[in-house]
Amino acid sequence: MSVTVEHVSTEIRPLRVAVVIGSTREGRFGPTVADWFVRQATPRDALIVDIVDTGTTELPHVFGAPAPAVAEATEKLAAADAFVIVTPEYNHSYPGSLKNLIDSHHTEWQAKPVGFVSYGGISGGLRAVEHLRSVFAELHAVTVRDSVALPNPWGRFDDAGVLRDDSAETAAAALLDQLIWWGEALRTARAVRPYGK
Ligand SMILES: Cc1cc2nc3c(=O)[nH]c(=O)nc-3n(C[C@H](O)[C@H](O)[C@H](O)COP(=O)(O)O)c2cc1C
User: Fold this and answer.
1) 119 found inside a domain
2) Is the confidence at residue 127, as pLDDT, over 90?
3) 9: in domain
4) pLDDT of residue 135
5) pLDDT score at 26
6) What are the two backbone dihedrals, phi and then psi, of residue 150, each rounded to the nearest 5 degrees?
7) Structural domain of residue 101, as residue ranges?
8) How far apart are CA 74 and CA 105, in angstroms?
9) pLDDT per residue over 99-116, tens digit each?
10) Does 85 map to a domain?
11) Protein residue with its CA nearest to atom 17 in ligand 1
């Protein structure tokens, strides 16, 4: 089968990235990590960043029940060209609130890249990320290789939310490079041929 490429816009548009905060716990550390990551991303002209916070999104307790309060999150996920999931590790996996958000959506994730910023104890949340990779494969999303992992992050940020050591900045830059490459490639591909059609 051949695909004829016509009217594909060559205009350079910023890539829309939805940064998802996965934890909802009282006193959670997630927003500190997410704010830091957004500051790594915003100097890049090629990106527009939206925040989807599971801590302020009223996800349904009864799965499948109507949840009008999710509409804003759904809109941001649908508009996104790429995602970054900010997740802690809970019992060697990721929080149920994040699974609820993921499972409450389907086409919104499809044929788009996903990057991860994780934190936790000594593992830095890597076990949560490995679980998420298989979940996103099921949703036809593409996970990027490089991620940011922050082991024991609690004392590592100053009062302004800046990491005292800059080792994670290199990891964030690699993640963003890969996310932008895949985000642009897949946006063009979806425009040429809608995914799954
Ligand atoms: C229920 C629970 C389970 C946890 N399990 C793990 C774990 O398996 N591995 C780990 O490295 N840290 C674990 N932690 C530590 C969390 O990763 C850490 O407290 C992190 O800050 C939680 O994210 P939050 O503050 O955004 O809720 C756990 C924390 C909680 C509350």
Assistant:
1) yes
2) yes
3) no
4) 98
5) 95
6) -115, 95
7) 15-191
8) 7
9) 999 999 999 999 999 999
10) yes
11) 120
Count CB atoms within 10 A of the CB of residue 107. Answer: 12
Q: How is residue 64 written in tokens?
A: 């499948």
Question: How far does the centroid of ligand 1 lie from the alpha carbon of residue 100, in Å?
Answer: 18
**124 Cβ inside 6 Å of ligand 1:** no
Whether the predicted pLDDT of 6 surpasses 80: no
Q: Which residue's CA is the closest to the ligand 1 atom numbered 23?
A: 88
- Predicted confidence at residue 136, as pLDDT, reads 98
Confidence band (pLDDT; 50, 70, 90) for 8? low
Tens digit of each residue's pLDDT (9 = 90 or more) over 141-150: 999 999 999 9
Tokens read off for 127: 């076990």
> What's the CA-to-centroid distance between 65 and ligand 1, angstroms?
29
Residue 3 lies in a domain: no
Question: Residue 190 Cα, ligand 1 centroid: separation in angstroms?
Answer: 37
Beta strands in 22-158 (DSSP E): 47-53, 82-88, 113-120, 142-143, 148-151
To the nearest whole number, what is the mean pLDDT of the chain?
Answer: 91
For residue 181, give the CATH number of its domain. 3.40.50.360
Decide: 121 in ligand 1 pocket, CB within 6 A. yes
153 CB under 6 A from ligand 1? no
Distance of CA 109 from the midpoint of ligand 1 (Å): 26
Tell me which residue has tokens 């957004």: 38
